[in-house]
Amino acid sequence: MRIAVVALGKIGLPLAVQFADAGHEVVGVDISDELVSLVNEGKEPFPGEARLQEKLSELVPEGRLRATTDYAEAIPGADAVVIVVPLFVNDATWEPDFGWMDSATASLAEHLTAGTLVSYETTLPVGTTRSRWKPLIEKISALREGVDFHLVFSPERVLTGRVFEDLRKYPKLIGGLSEAGARRARDFYEAVLQFDDRPDLPRPNGVWDLGSAEAAELAKLAETTYRDVNIALANQFALFADTVGIDIYKVIEASNSQPYSHIHRPGIAVGGHCIPVYPRLYLSTDGEAEVVRAARKLNASMPERFVQQAESLLGGLSQQRVVVLGASYRGGVKETAFSGVFPTVEALKARGAEVTVHDPLYSDAELRDLGFTGYHFGEPVDLVIIQADHSDYSAVGPADLPGVKLVIDGRNITDAGLWSGVPRLVVGAGGASEFPRA
């Protein structure tokens, strides 16, 4: 097959590589000249994706994968077009911002030819594929969906850093606007993906047809919103546990020993491209989902709550030297999308603190580009807030942070034995150690 992939980001490029590695001719489209040039040179444009460079080094010289900024070069004659363009959410209104996706859809529609399967993998509000993309593509292309081309929704279900592994591990969900479109999507994804044996699943791993685009859209929103709501519940339990001197981690471990309990872990922030965003996409079509709304608000409030605790315990933060450990949204991943570092630093600066940031995956220059001043172990500091669970931080102790008066561990990653004599607060662990209880 000849396949076009629209948007070569941290999901789109590995997808394009996967399709080419399965033996197909793949053309990737992206608006970035620099990214396109790097791909055509066989160089990974972003680090951290397992096996990506290895596969690029093989596929690009063989001519199985190339990139372009020109839709006219990629779309005409394609057997399938896969769209992975980002969808943003307005921070103030929580409404989706379709700007980039509308533009990409219009561009592909201008060059769409008959017989093409169009698959959206970007997570969408329920109903978007049918009510927004179908009429837009038909209007611009003058082609009829279900007759001249087929349109489906098939959500990506992978994490950056392990895309190729996850593509094999999880069922590929599809939902068409017609039975014929669903059959085309099944044939396509079975031709480009391979699946691990999963005896734990209720049916064989592979391509799962959910019967409609709306069902597939909701499936992706549901699985991610579940995580946000579950984390919010864990955070709620942790906040209460601190008021009564209970270690919530022991409680969660005990609760989860029963097979119907799957409580997640509390923490200072919920970051990444997915969990903070997709509940808001769900709310855009289900305004009555108060459980989802309350959970999102609670999780978003956690950085401010941690900073308030630090302010209370230290008697103020004005001119206090503070280091936030971790710019990434999660440990081991060089990605700051919706990272808790941003609201944490903002809350600290609002209280007059002198804030620096450390992350083993980022250079000082890269931290500056993010708006932060880099910290180096050994420099004097008053307060430490651990925001990301990088494995390096499990071995950090007072000797690395001269003068430290308080450590707030937002990820429960530090070794209590290393912090003897220094006040240490872990959310849900029963309150700050070394501080007298009221």
TrEMBL record:
Instruction: List the GO molecular function terms.
Output: NAD binding; oxidoreductase activity, acting on the CH-CH group of donors, NAD or NADP as acceptor; oxidoreductase activity, acting on the CH-OH group of donors, NAD or NADP as acceptor
Start and end residues of each UDP-glucose/GDP-mannose dehydrogenase C-terminal domain: 323-416
**What Pfam families would the database entry show?**
UDPG_MGDP_dh, UDPG_MGDP_dh_C, UDPG_MGDP_dh_N
- Xref: SUPFAM superfamilies: 6-phosphogluconate dehydrogenase C-terminal domain-like, NAD(P)-binding Rossmann-fold domains, UDP-glucose/GDP-mannose dehydrogenase C-terminal domain
Sorted alphabetically, which InterPro entries does this protein's record hold?
A: 6-PGluconate_DH-like_C_sf, NAD(P)-bd_dom_sf, UDP-Glc/GDP-Man, UDP-Glc/GDP-Man_DH_C, UDP-Glc/GDP-Man_DH_C_sf, UDP-Glc/GDP-Man_DH_dimer, UDP-Glc/GDP-Man_DH_N, UDP_ManNAc/GlcNAc_DH
Sorted alphabetically, the keyword list is: NAD, Oxidoreductase
Q: Which NCBIfam families match?
A: NDP-sugDHase (TIGR03026)
Family note: Belongs to the UDP-glucose/GDP-mannose dehydrogenase family.
Q: What is this protein called?
A: Nucleotide sugar dehydrogenase
